[in-house]
Design a protein that fits this description.
- The chain is mainly α.
- It has one domain.
- The chain is built from six helices and no strands.
């Protein structure tokens, strides 16, 4: 599997999560429980952002994969390193999202169920993305040897 194929698969997975988040969030938004409504609002918002990231990231990757030097070992190594670095940065940011969601749930959410739900929605989205980014960062790191054996 080349880094280009890996990136395409990662994009498909993020796209799937985004659609699932939007659908779940839309359903929860109509729940009479205010906390569930808050979770729903966050799921829709994060889903839209992840959909945009998947679309733009996928488009950018396709463009770079069509460059004349896209399959040269140095380009493949650079793309792999850049993607791994981005995923590790995102993994760190995900921890911040989780902590921010907990703070929101325990401050504004203390007296308002909808805010509490939004905080927990952020925790859920950040938690998923933490494992998503961590998994893919570790996987792209292990594939470096395989990625370039075809070259």
């Amino acid at each position: 599997m080349t880094i280009w194929e890996f990136s395409a698969e990662l994009t498909k997975r993020l796209f799937t999560w985004a659609i699932a988040s939007i659908a779940t969030g839309a359903a929860l938004s109509f729940n009479p429980n205010r906390q569930q409504q808050g979770v729903g609002v966050q799921f829709v918002g994060w889903g839209v952002v992840n959909l945009l990231i998947a679309f733009l990231g996928g488009h950018s990757t396709q463009r770079r994969a069509q460059q004349p030097n896209a399959h040269e070992p140095v380009t493949l190594a650079t793309e792999s390193r850049n993607l791994r670095r981005l995923l590790w940065i995102n993994t760190g940011l995900d921890v911040g999202y989780i902590l921010g969601g907990l703070v929101l749930a325990r401050t504004k959410g203390r007296s308002d169920a909808r805010w509490r739900g939004q905080g927990y929605g952020i925790v859920a989205q950040g938690g998923f993305l933490f494992f998503f980014d961590l998994f893919h960062a570790l996987l792209v790191g292990k594939q470096d040897v395989q990625l370039f054996s075809k070259s």
